[in-house]
Structures are given as C-alpha cells and as structure tokens.
Amino acid sequence: MDLPKVKFIYAYPLDTNRRKLYSNKNLGYYPSIEEVKEKINYWETLWGQTNENDKVILRLKELTRRTPERSLECFVFGGGINPMSTPFLMPVMSRDGMRSDEEFVDVMIHEILHIFIAGADKYFDMIRDKYSEELVLTHNHIIIYAFLEKIYLEMFQSQPIDFNRTDLPEGYSRAIEIVREEGYENLIKDYYLSLL
Fold it and tell me: I need a surface site. Which of 11, 12, 83, 167 has the fewest CB within 10 A?
C-alpha cells in the first residue's frame, strides 16, 4: 500500500443519530450539520499544515516500521462518542466543548498510531505476557504513549496532552506511568525486538 492519506468524511448517519439522541434526552448542546461540515473543512487545512509533505505520516511509518493495512478515512460527527481508531472516528466536541486545534492534532496522531500498529501481534503477545496484571487498555496504550512522547519531543518540543491530564481513565494513566518508569526509548526498543 502507498503512503496513506487522511480523508475526512462527514459521518451523516452517525451524526444524525447522535443529534437526535442529544435532543430526545436533553443532553445539551450538539453542533449543527453546518458546524460539523465547517469543522471538517477547517481540520482538512489544519491537518494539511501539520502533516505538510506527509512529515507526520512518514515519521509514524518510520517509527512503527509498518504501513497501515487499511485507509485513513476519518469519520467526523458532532459528539457523544470518544475518538477511536477502529472505526476511525473523530467527534468535533470533546469533554470540554468544541475540540481545540492542539487536542485535534494530538488525538489524530494517537488514533493513527493505533492504525499503524494494528496487527503487530507478536508485540501485543509480548506486552500481554510482560504486563499480565495490567488492564487490556493499558496493554493497548503503552507503545502508543511511548511513540507519542518521542514524536512530540521531536516535532513539537512538548509532551502529549494526556501526559499533563489528571482525569484519564485508569488504563490510560497506567500506560503513561509505565512510559515514565521505563522510558519511551526502552519501550520502543522492546517493540522493535518483537518485530524480528
């Protein structure tokens, strides 16, 4: 597969259903179709600037030593579901309102990393054995946060957003603790060894 490109797609059925749910259950503000579509246009530009000359995707490919086995179609909708990689979903709203540019970029890289390492079965077998006492959510995020720390230090000279949050679910926070305890370099080295 050639170098994958992110394509933002309006998730009409999902967005319509979420909007009805918010209305029927009085769950508060939900962005209009126009607002979601405006955000898609804005994000296409923002991602194009962030990933100029494919620098983010190329770095992910180089670091993970993998090319995704599927496309990077990102389905965008208003909110009410967390971002995820399978399917690749991105709500315009976060827990705190409309998603900031910084949060958008962070989540995009996080979810695309999941897509890149999907199918690295030997690695995940090793992690599930080594960290058998930990939650599966932790297993799934150790290498994500190790790669994120490396990428953020290289590209943005900062830490990923989650490294400074205190409200993360246990599995995520424990994965960050492991990255801090063992060092992202050592965890990435273990990942490479599992690929041999």
Answer: 167
Residue 128 makes CB contacts below 8 A (sequence gap 6+) with 136, 139
Q: pTM of the entire structure?
A: 0.96
Integer Cα distance of 138 and 12 in angstroms: 32
Of 34, 29, 15, residue with least CA distance to 76: 15
Whether residue 148 sits in one domain with residue 100: no
What secondary structure letter does DSSP report for 75? E
Are 108 and 139 within one domain?
no
CA–CA distance, 183 with 80 (Å, rounded to integer):
34
Task: Give residue-wise pLDDT tens across range 125-183.
Answer: 999 999 999 999 999 999 999 999 999 999 999 999 999 999 999 999 999 999 999 99
- Domains in the chain: how many in total? 2
Residue 160 belongs to what domain range? Answer: 121-195
